[in-house]
Fold this protein.
Amino acid sequence: AVGRYSDADNPVISGGTFSSDVSAFVGDDFICVPTEDGYAVEIMNADNAVAKIGDKLYKNLADAITEAKSGEVVTLLKSVEGPGVQVIGSSNRTLTIDLGGNTYTVINPTVGSAGTETNGFQLLKGSTITFKNGTLKPGTNAAAILLQNYSNLTLEDVTVDCRNSQCEYALSNN
């Protein structure tokens, strides 16, 4: 493996192949991708990034949503499995999540209030959120509620698919 180190206690990987997922140690401009033999760390580009806002690429949907400013569109670039996503509410924040015709499958860890992390998506009060053009589904039995909604939510051409899962509620509005 090739690596660069910011200091001896915090290694940052910038290339190489690995037998296990090293995403936690990958530098900002790099991404850990699965291969037939394990994992590879590559420079992030439009072919291996998961999401984008404008021209800025992201390793995962959660980071893109967290960084999105009001009025921006987060675009999912391919069908992926990823952890639950919490959308923090803020006054007058408007956010569009364009699934790009892809499927986002929620795996562990799920999100939610302390002690009740059973949501695929937790959309908190104070935001206007639009999901469009794709499919959301659970890929873990921990996702009892796929969409826990406290926001002003619009689903536009979105399939919320809880078939063949332990999901109790596809959408819970509070």
Remarks:
- Residues 61-67 form the longest helix (7 residues).
- DSSP finds one helix and 15 strands in the chain.
